[in-house]
Each structure stands twice: as structure tokens, then as C-alpha cells.
Amino acid sequence: PDSDFKMSVGEFVEMLLCQDRYYSTVLPRLPMVTKRQVEERLAPLVQARKRMQANKQILEVFRESSGIRIECNIHGEWLQGTLLELDEDPPNRPKVRARLDDGSEEYIHLGRVIIADRSVRTDRRGGRGSGRSRSRSKHDWSREKGKSDKELIDEMRS
User: Fold this and answer.
1) Which residue in 35, 129, 138, 145 is a FRET match for 154, CA 20 to 30 A apart?
2) What is the pLDDT of residues 68-120, one digit of tens each?
3) Coil, helix or strand for 100?
């Protein structure tokens, strides 16, 4: 294996669950019902990781902007709400506490939150990494929902 290639434990487990082989070793097959459930959980992860990275770049916005309008992906559905606070405990899995428009309060993983308030600046100019990005993505993942969970699941299964 290439020594420069890095992968988190979560990404490694995801790869094992999605593929039939690990190098030349054939992996045990999952029952079809279980496989479908795993696909439903795994399909949105890539997009959520990208959104998490984008939101981590602008953590100050989440720390200092209580009361801004946000949208949260809860069980595949985007719901509108208001940011109450950023919860950085543990630091590697930040969440926001939000009051949804139905009046309920939820803690939502930062990778499942977008900023809906257009008056809030989310550009990252002038900070560290303001040069060329390694990512060629034209998406502003801190503002865009991307594909629906259903579309991602369908793509994974095709």
C-alpha cells in the first residue's frame, strides 16, 4: 500500500461494508435486508464529511452567531430552525443545538447543518489556507444541501 495514502478508521470500515473484497480476500456477504440498511446509513456520509470540513473552516460563525437561520438534515429531511449554540464537546465531533421551527430543540452533527441566513458571511478569505484549495469542488457545503439522501442511496445501489 502507498504510504502517503491516509484513511480514517471510519472510512476504512465504510470501505469494508461497501465492497465484496479486501485486496484478494473475499469478504462475507451481508444479508440483503442488512445490506440495504447499511447502504441507507452510508450513502449520505461522503456529503456529510464534505459539509463538516466546510463548516469546521467557519467555526467562528457558529460560535458567534447565535440566532441565525440554519437548516438541519434530520433522518434525510431538511428542517429549518435557528442556531442556539455550538457544542464542541468532544472537539472532533462538533454539534449545534438548534430550535426547529416546530418548537423542538435538537443537537445536530455539524456535517448535517447548513447556514440558511444569506446575511452571514461564510467566505474564508484571508485566513490560513486562502491559496489554492486541494478540493476542486464548486459547492459551498456550508450553504448547499447537495443531493438528497434518496438520490445518494439510489446512486450507491446502481
Assistant:
1) 138
2) 999 999 998 999 999 999 999 988 899 999 999 999 999 999 999 999 988 88
3) strand
Q: Is 10 exposed, middle or buried (0-12, 13-18, 19+ CB in 10 A)?
A: exposed
- Answer for the pair 70, 115: CB distance below 8 angstroms, yes or no: yes
Q: Is 56 exposed, middle or buried (0-12, 13-18, 19+ CB in 10 A)?
A: middle
Cα separation, 7 vs 147, in Å, equals 24
153 close to 39: Cβ distance less than 8 angstroms = yes
By residue count, the chain amounts to 158
Computed from CA positions of residues 59, 64, 67, 68, in that sequence, does the dihedral angle turn out positive or negative? negative
pTM for the whole structure: 0.78
